Amino acid sequence: MMTGWVFVVLSSVSSVLIAHFLKMTEYAGLNTIRVLTVNYAIASLVAFGTADWGDPLSYSGATDLVMPLLIMLIAGLLFIGNFFLFSRSVARNGMGISVSSMRLSLLIPVLISVFWYGEWLTSWQWFSMILLFAALYMMLPERRAEPAKNVDPGYNNEHGLSRARNRGAWLLILLFLGNGLADTSLKIYETSHSSVVGKELFMGGIFLTALLTGVLVLIRSGSFRFEKAEIRLGIFIGIPNLYASIFLIQALEQLPGALVYSTINLLIVLGATVLGVRRWGDRVTARQWAGITLTLVAIVLSVVSG
Fold it and tell me: DSSP 3-state assignment of 280?
């Protein structure tokens, strides 16, 4: 059981590293799509290179591979699609509200883990999970802190502003659903298909799908010329991007999904907050510091009650 919490921490650290390198990409003014494409190339190569190719031989018929392959395809499109949605949402709604939508998407896999897979929690675990959600709410940045940027001039009239708000709202809804469904796909794989396809092979298929999608986008946009800095950062992102999901799956094998998803999301917010303050000079409000403290209490309670 304790090993499961180690995987929770490792998955969270990997995700914080991804956010850090993406921030470096933005700070350096590099092409995010090209960096992400390199990232998926590296992640898929490492995943296939470390995969146990004997795993697929355990299935009893070709039909056993249909669902895992379908999940790989859908998850791959969701993974890279979520990055695109996040970029559009930041431009329309601001960074704060977009990050909030991504973090709150953990509600989807948590509810599915509890009500679909019947992973019922103890009373103390329910209480700790409620604390985690409360802490998450307290740590989310306020909407007014980062107003929407890059709004088109055509939206200056009242009707145009209304359309802009509607489009921004739809981006947030799609971002919430996309991230929630991407996390849920890993839970479905771990529960129903991990005996057919190994973790590395499964993630390799997801990242290969995302890679091909990114390549098509770059070809269509005519921006297929990579800078050395983009390749370097893509490599730095690719490794933690792969193992963030691998460690998540390993944590799901040992702990209830509701606790795994809620704790990982809170640790990501906690880690990103500390990194932002120490490395990027971000400011943290008193409410957010209170949320960080509540996070630590809830996580300790989760570990003890588990």
Answer: coil
- On the 0-12 / 13-18 / 19+ scale of CB atoms within 10 A, 190 is buried
| Rounded Cα distance, 9 and 241, in Å | 14
Stronger pLDDT, 104 or 45, i.e. the higher one: 45
Nearest to 258 by CA among 115, 68, 139, 142: 115
Q: What is the identity of the amino acid at 169?
A: A
User: What is the Cα–Cα distance from 227 to 249, expressed in whole angstroms?
Assistant: 33
Q: How far apart are CA 196 and CA 52, in angstroms?
A: 11
Residue 103: give the domain boundaries: 2-305
Residue 146 has pLDDT above 50, yes or no: no
Residue pLDDT, tens place only, 178-206 = 988 998 998 888 888 888 888 888 999 99
DSSP string, 219-247: HHHT-----HHHHHHHHHHHHHHHHHHHH
pTM of the complete model beyond 0.85: no
Among residues 71, 77, 84, which one has the least CA distance to residue 249?
71
- Grouping H, G, I as helix, E, B as strand and the rest as coil, residue 126 is helix
Contact 13, 248 (CB under 8 A): no
**How many domains is the chain built from?**
1
